[in-house]
Amino acid sequence: MRLDGCNGDFELCTNLTEFDVEYNIVTEGELRTQCGLDALGCADLNLSIGNCVITLTASSSRSTKLHEQNHCRGWDHDYHDYSWTFRRPKVRWKPWDVVIDFLKKRKP
Ligand SMILES: [Zn+2]
Question: How far is the CA of 42 from the centre of ligand 1 (A)?
Answer without folding.
Answer: 7
